[in-house]
Design brief:
Length: 122
């Protein structure tokens, strides 16, 4: 699944909020958007078709009801899927090696990664 820049802006809001949001919630929280407010329904429909979001119920706004949306995958799951969906897939060991060379990796990150590796081995 490949998302456009505008779709990623919507996803970032949904991921950051970590709760289902309505169309108007998304408009309120999208501070640096590159799309027009009138385009939000087109973006949401595209995300629904791609399976990136799902309807998570209805909320009452004044006298009407509106749908709320939530992501179907985490930010990390999206990027992992994106890396391995391309024709030129990286070698997984080489990818991990490159990630571990980053300066912003903390000892806590390493501890959690080691625990995940041990869990996968079991």
């Amino acid at each position: 699944m490949e998302l456009t820049k505008s779709e990623m802006e919507i996803m970032d809001v949904l991921w950051d909020e970590d709760k289902p949001l309505s169309r108007s919630d998304l408009l309120e929280r999208s501070e640096e958007k590159t799309w027009k407010d009138s385009s939000v329904h087109i973006l949401l429909n595209g995300l629904l078709q791609k399976g990136a979001i799902q309807e998570a119920g209805l909320v009452k706004r004044s006298k009407t009801y509106g749908r709320v949306f939530s992501p179907t995958l985490t930010r990390e799951e999206y990027f992992a899927e994106t890396i391995f969906s391309h024709r030129h897939k990286p070698n997984i060991v080489g990818l991990f090696e490159a990630l571990l060379r980053r300066e912003d990796i903390t000892q806590e990150d390493l501890r959690q990664i080691a625990a995940l590796v041990e869990q996968k081995r079991a």
